[in-house]
Amino acid sequence: MSFLPPETSFGRIISVRGSQARAGLNAGQHVTPAETRATVGRFVSIRCANAIIVAIITEVTSEHLPDSDRYYACASVDLLGEIYGEPQQQRFRRGVTSYPAIDDPVSLISNQELRTIYAPKGLDQINIGTLQQDPSVTAYVDVEEMLNKHFAVLGSTGVGKSSGVSLLLNEILKARPQLRIFLLDVHNEYGRCFGERALVLNPRNLKLPFWLFNFEEIVDVLFGGRPGVPEELEILTEVIPLAKSLYTQYSNSDRLGLKRLDGKHSAFTADTPVPYRLVDLISLIDERMGRLENRSSRIVYHKLISRIETVRNDPRYAFMFDNANVGGDTMAEVISHLFRLPANGRPMTIMQLAGFPAEVVDSVVSVLCRMAFDFGLWSDGISPLLFVCEEAHRYASADRTIGFGPTRKAVSRIAKEGRKYGVYLGLVTQRPAELDATIISQCSTLFTMRLANDRDQSLLRSAVSDAAANLLSFVPSLGTREVLAFGEGVALPTRLRFKDVPAHQLPRSESTISSTPVTDSGHDAHFLNTVLERWRGATSHREPPNDGQAARPAPRSFEAPMLQPSLGLDPDRFSLLKKPLR
Q1: Which candidate, 8, 113, 223, 558, has a CA 20 to 30 Å from the CA of 564?
Q2: What DSSP string runs through 411-433?
Q3: What is the pLDDT of residues 31-42, one digit of tens each?
């Protein structure tokens, strides 16, 4: 491959060191049109004997010039890859096999060379936008590389991160219509972005039986996110496996009258995902309480029973405890519904988390992550799934003292091993420094938008392995919808701009919030009554009115701890009241 004529180059190589080089910019060409200026972030081509080396300018300075008569400035460049082959069959590859020599000519990269670099190399390419350097060149992402090795979208609030996620997922659905996608929607803003291709789940239509929660997760639910009481945990450790064995006996028998378990042996552990009934669990606890002679020792059992019933009767937990005392192994139906098996034209699930009680969100996310991974594991990855975790720093915090350990463990397991079983991870966060560094390091493709925090930028520098890590110095100055894309999914570390997202695919909250106040006439009594009805309905058992009839409040549940002091109930007599009917 021959050199270009000297007049077409704007500089010459003056030093080479490893993956970096310095170019002197010709003194006679420093006044140029804006589109041909040699500035930080622009790609350049270095003509060598056997290839065209592609590099990116990371610094321009007029200090310490080697020859001020010949050069007006020096540019530092990172060597990224090379274009090789005959002119009509040129290809691009990462890495450099032939290093530049002193005095090799340096030119701003041409449109045709950019098209060679970013040309789609297969059917698994998605169009996500255009290059910042040349908007006429389309920026493609390799779906296979992006998914197989996980990806992350990082950016502060207000930079277009959510619309970028919507763009990426919609394009992935086009390229991989059979791929199943599960999205954790923290702020309930993606519900309208995917039309009929997505099933939207929330506490009102979700059925996630409590017995699918493992021991740590159900403890987190019962204790409201606080550490469990050791004495109560010991009791639960014993009785949950027995309750599962008891249910299995029921389901395997034609009659209800069964021989009671001996209380010492069970075929299951507290983590085995098989059904059990709350009525059996309470009965087993009450049975142990009845054997105690010391009255003060029974308080622990009373508190545990009360704790279970309080959560069971809380309408906010209906998605877990509806039909808690009715038998039925619905695990297959739950997994089929959650993870779209079969998809029936809706390969995507959007789990809206904003309506769940704050105390159990971590537990719910833990269950969903764990089930997604376990299904991939035990199905040998036959049906691939992309698990997208919005606001990922909430569930996999870098600080091990905060958050819920099992949730971090579940996300980490997908990050480390998921690709082996067809479970891929997409992380979305505005605070990458608060996200577990081990998890984010597993993401081989990063889409970085504007980040102003120094800690976030430092974490990215340690995570990016490309020679163009210096590009991260541009992160604080990126415009809205501008992205630095790194890693396996893109041909080169690239500054690009996400393409416009259609209006119907733009994320937005369930309700439209305006900073302009409504006129006083809009705040009438009917408006306030409607708000209060919705407010109270979120924490009550009342059904919506039917055929014009007012909804009736559900009867109060029997709360033993509240009644005991006023009525003076004897604990022994109270234990009889708690006996379930057979």
Answers
A1: 223
A2: HHHHHHHGGGGTEEEEEEES-GG
A3: 455 445 678 888
